[in-house]
Design goal:
The chain is α/β, with parallel strands linked by helices. The protein has one domain: Ribonuclease Z/Hydroxyacylglutathione hydrolase-like (Metallo-beta-lactamase, Chain A), CATH 3.60.15. Helices cover 17% and strands 27% of the residues. It contains 6 helices and 15 strands. Pfam families: Lactamase_B_2. Keywords: Hydrolase. Residues 58-241 form the Metallo-beta-lactamase domain.
Length: 278
């Protein structure tokens, strides 16, 4: 039986909305272009587990967005033990081929985890990642694993095991998965929660939650709605992610409660201690 990781650091690789900040055309919106924390790549989260009795690390990725290559390079990521998908939309999946180098270097497939619906869409769009295409000599790089709401998955690695629990979320007309690790919850691309998920919103130390923009959106929480949910859930710390070009880092910081922070690319959180590191 694998020993659990003694420390787990969550790194926000990207916290931008589907077009990133700035958007193509050098569109910064209300964001101050001189503030480095306003430059946002597409949403992705890295979990890194460590143990005192090992020099190795366990690494788990949530979503493979369009900017994945640059995100992995910026954070010196060399291997991946597993990848989890919140859902199948393009801004969360289209960096999937950048897993190839790590799979080939390790000489084994990387396990990826998704819902039945997301799995069908992802494997249809990127079938060559899962099977060798006809008349192709390239080996598959990924192994598909279907996961269910509320059933924890244990990822083993050199830095100890990391347990992730899929939490069902509403995202407009579809559902997505949030992922809970101890008292830490990552809720990207969410417009609400079914009542069955309320128990997973209790007693959170850190909650990273979607707050897309100021105006209403049919499939995302806007800033006001996210703050309402935070007031209702009462996590010790909340971090707003999936931020559009109308949400300036310093402006959000000035107008939200002390326990609420705007995410930025490279932000780190100690999952077990339940605190923001930088």
């Amino acid at each position: 039986m694998s020993k659990p990781a003694q420390t787990i650091i969550a790194t926000i690789l990207g916290c931008g909305s589907s077009g990133g900040v700035p958007r193509i055309g050098n569109q910064w919106g209300e964001c101050d272009r001189t503030e480095s924390r306003n430059r946002r790549s597409r949403c992705s989260l890295l979990l890194t587990g460590k143990r005192k009795d090992s020099t190795g690390i366990t690494q788990v990725l949530i979503d493979t967005g369009c900017d994945l290559r640059e995100q992995l390079l910026a954070n010196n990521v060399e291997h991946m033990d597993a990848v989890f998908y919140t859902h199948e939309h393009a801004d969360h999946t289209h960096g999937i081929d950048d897993l190839r180098v790590m799979a080939l270097t390790a000489r084994k497939r990387i396990d990826v985890y998704f819902s039945a619906r997301a799995g069908r869409r992802i494997m249809n769009s990127f079938d060559y990642c899962f099977t060798t295409a006809k008349d192709s000599g390239y080996p598959p790089i990924l192994r598909a694993n279907e996961i269910e709401t509320g059933v924890p998955i244990v990822i083993k690695g050199a830095g100890g095991s990391i347990d992730l629990k899929p939490v069902l979320q509403d995202h407009g007309k579809i559902t997505t998965f949030g992922f809970k690790i101890k008292n830490f919850l990552y809720s990207c691309d969410v417009s609400g929660f079914p009542q069955s998920s309320y128990v997973d919103l209790e007693r959170l130390d850190v909650w990273i939650v979607d707050a897309l923009r100021r105006s209403a959106h049919p499939s995302h929480l806007n800033l006001e709605q996210a703050l309402d949910w935070i007031e209702r859930v009462k996590p010790k710390q909340a971090i707003l992610t999936n931020l559009h070009i109308d949400l300036d880092y310093k402006s959000i910081s000035n107008e939200t409660p002390d326990n609420v922070s705007a995410a930025y690319d490279g932000m780190k959180i100690d999952v077990i201690a339940g605190k923001i590191l930088d």
